[in-house]
């Protein structure tokens, strides 16, 4: 089903609330009267902004409130100026209440960093507006936040390198503005699916950008466009920009999946936009099951399985565990994930040379692979050939993703789906034979002698050859079994920096 159809319907339903005043968005962002360059720097408390320092894992506990200029609040809250200080910033809201993700994120941060000062930046009174109005209020909220940080630095010698701002959606740009005007350089800003409308294509000083902190990392989970806009910003805006599942369709967030649980069209949008938060929470809670992202020029090349290298810092952990690399800007990285936590899975690059043998010029096979490992085996996995057709007498590269750790790969079953085994193969067969209904096509035969495999997470490389040297040919409905062999490919992984 075309994903754009339900999205257009959803956008139309919420357009009056989300974009009703967006006609003048260019003037708001780029005009001389935006007010961004005149943010106050005196650190005064601005009405409507609260800093709730969490003092207990009990989420029913109200916590303690900091106020700029009031040292007694720091003592009362037990603020430790030498520890990490993590500010968590929410985004636009219609409900006027914190969403459930906030409690999960705060709890995960506190459990991971038990000695840190964890502060929730509450700007709900300004965020609960029509979206364009809330965008304009991000400047005011950022002004208050950078005033608080400047005061802590001046009065408490807060080390800015230990300050980490985590902003979701519109809150990511609040973090960016605050980082711009802090006296000094903040250690890190994390943008969790930063808002796209009214920020896409804007100049750097009017959105989150790499210059706002020593290290800016961004997770993009909802970059799919409808009605000319994307809920999450599409362009890379950090030092490292990570696009899980291409930043497009997130597993478990399909229309049918969400409606079956929530029965609400708005939840479809929320599922993908909010996935960035849940991936970040997952990275905090599952240190032993970390997800890796791989540098690539774009999602199409990644889907082909080309970009699984860790050489020269081309791979990285995602979420809280993302490590700073040499100062680079807008490094785009990609990975696939599971639909539920733990989200991390396992990536395999497979290279398969397909030889045309008999009557196979227009074969267009639908291949599946089943992987057998030292720990587990997979189900049959559809080989998603991004170019839509298998190249004959060519080396085909594709990506295989497994949700569970199968251990060292021992064996591969390669099967060619028969013409009637799925609707996909039926439809391909109908299209192929549309002009020849009465002619029974001859049975095509292809030959696959070996498959070369690279495991993304371990960087190990192996070659698999036909278990039976006499059984290398395959036709619709057939299966070839391949086992490890040697043909000159590197077997041991290259050394890489520890994650």
From TrEMBL:
Gene3D superfamilies associated with the record: alpha/beta hydrolase, PLAT/LH2 domain
MF (Gene Ontology): heparin binding; lipoprotein lipase activity; metal ion binding
Family (UniProt): Belongs to the AB hydrolase superfamily. Lipase family.
UniProt protein name: triacylglycerol lipase
UniProt keyword annotation of Metal-binding present: yes
GO biological process assignments: lipid catabolic process
GO cellular component: extracellular space
Catalytic residues (positions): 169, 193, 273
Enzymatic class: hydrolase
Reaction it catalyzes: a triacylglycerol + H2O = a diacylglycerol + a fatty acid + H(+)
InterPro entries, alphabetized: AB_hydrolase_fold (IPR029058), Lipase (IPR013818), Lipase_LIPH (IPR016272), Lipase_N (IPR033906), Lipo_Lipase (IPR002330), PLAT/LH2_dom (IPR001024), PLAT/LH2_dom_sf (IPR036392), TAG_lipase (IPR000734)
Chief location: secreted
Keywords carried by this UniProt record: Calcium, Disulfide bond, Glycoprotein, Heparin-binding, Hydrolase, Lipid degradation, Lipid metabolism, Metal-binding, Secreted, Signal
Species name: Cottoperca gobio (Frogmouth)
Top-level taxon in the UniProt lineage: Eukaryota
Domain PLAT: 346-484
One of the Pfam families matching this protein, by short name: PLAT
Enzyme Commission designation: 3.1.1.3
Compartment(s): Secreted
Residues involved in Ca(2+) binding: 204, 207, 212
Extent of the signal sequence: 1-17
